Amino acid sequence: MTAYLKSRQPVIYLLAFCTLVCLLQVFFPQVPGLTPAYGYLSSWMSILIGFVYIPSTISLIVRSAKSVQKRKERWYVDAIILAMMIITAGVYLSGGQSMSSTQYRWIFNILYTACQSAVWGIMALWLVYIPTQTFLFKNVDMALFTITAVITALGVHAPVGTAIWGGFPIIGQWIVNYPDKGVSYATGVLTGVGVLLTGLRMIRGQEKGVIA
């Protein structure tokens, strides 16, 4: 019994039970007791996530500080991270500890939102650059990927596409509305099935590495 309690198996069964309660509440909300149980589980999940943020933040600060102090490779990135954490924390505390304050919202909109958009834009360009330079239409898949990406970029996200040809916006929007959404739904379904199968393997004790 002691060896069983020291193993990961009780944790796996507890996670499986909590997941089952959440799934039942989504599909059968009329069953008595499921909604309050779901509410309690959601509250405890928020509490646990809050506690996880504390050690993870401390670990990030310590690691970044050591990297800057020892001038490790790309230490300037860690210096920027430390500076942004200090600035954000200072603005948050000076704004009445509210994320809805004008100063905090300014930092969020100017820095976080702008950087996020820039990162996604760079990634999109990189995804187009890779097949174009590496494969250069060597097969049908890469040619279809590149042509679709270029048409979508010109028709949906770049005003220059409309100036070049009025058909780019129509074709680009059609790609976004139909093929893109269809593939996204299929990917979501496959991801859900994969998560379910992984959960079943964990319950059976065949997938212990994910909680090691």
Outline the structure in words.
With 212 residues, the protein is mostly helical. The chain has a domain of 68 residues. It contains eight helices and no strands. The protein is extended.
Topology (SSEs and partners):
Blueprint: H1 2-6, H2 9-27, H3 34-69, H4 75-94, H5 102-135, H6 140-157, H7 159-164, H8 167-203
Q: Helix segment count?
A: 8
Instruction: Indicate the proportion of strand residues.
Output: under 5%
| End-to-end Cα distance | 21 Å
Q: Could you estimate the helical fraction of the residues in percent?
A: over 70%
Q: What attributes does this structure have?
A:
0% strand, mainly alpha, 8 helices, extended, 212 residues
A few lines on this structure:
The chain is mostly helical and 212 residues long. The protein is built from eight helices and no strands.
